[in-house]
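Report of the visiting student (M.T.), summer placement. My assignment was to run the structure pipeline on a short list of targets and document each run. The first record concerns UspA domain-containing protein.
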Amino acid sequence: MIQKILITVAGLGKCEEMLKMLMEIPSIQQANVTVLHVVPPQVTADAMSAKLEEGGKILASAIKNLNLDPSKVNARLKQGDPKDTVCQVADEEGSDLIIMGSRGLKRLESILENSVSQYVFQLTSRPMLLVKDDVYVKRINRIMVPIDKSNTAKSALGQALSLLRDIKGGQLVLVHINPDKKKAQEISTSNAEQDPVLAPAIAEAKKQGVAYRCITSSGNPAEEICRLAEESNVDLLVLGSPERRPSIAQSLPDLDRLLGRSISDYVRVYANCPVLLARTSA
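After the run finished, the structure tokens were exported:
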């Protein structure tokens, strides 16, 4: 259940649009929201003073735009490295969800250009909702969840169902991508409900009274997820993103993700809709 949301704002408005759509869902409406703007180090005191003043205006504008219950909003203007500060504030606030903007930088670009969202994605264990600068934020009605037998897929399913339970006319799109093309061909989309991998998710959707449709496919999972999300015109993609590193290395970036070899990293960059990464331990 999402009770504490951390949203980072930078004056672009995309994250605010996303939160406003989330706030239309009854289960989210009682959440406490921390609105964060981070001012990075400046060369001179005058420059810092100017940036802090600008940051204060960005915060005020975002809060006015969100139009939330003032008793449930906490505005925070922080100085420091944005990458570290977002993680720090999320831990301080005990955030159940981090909403961040993303430029959708690809692989090494995100390292070389010092991407804040990429860094936070690597290091936080908290669910993240990434909103690319070039995506169109829509009212949440159709949510896609890629399903396999992993615990992270179960976590993503639970997150999606918790949202859809309160959305009138909402639909869950369950997707199973089988790397074995021969087995995938045995179960076409027309009879996808017979896919045994989707069976537990279907049962849970029925139990919670959530409408659903099923899709089966084959091929590269990351590419297929992005293709099917666009083809199905989904409003939100909820994807399990496991923490795969041993605890001793959890303060270090995951090189597989940094180099773009993980499904979640590919989807984060290429999906044409907002992506909620449900984080669980592997």
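DSSP finds eleven helices and ten strands in the chain. The longest helix spans residues 45-66. I thank the supervising group for their guidance throughout the placement.
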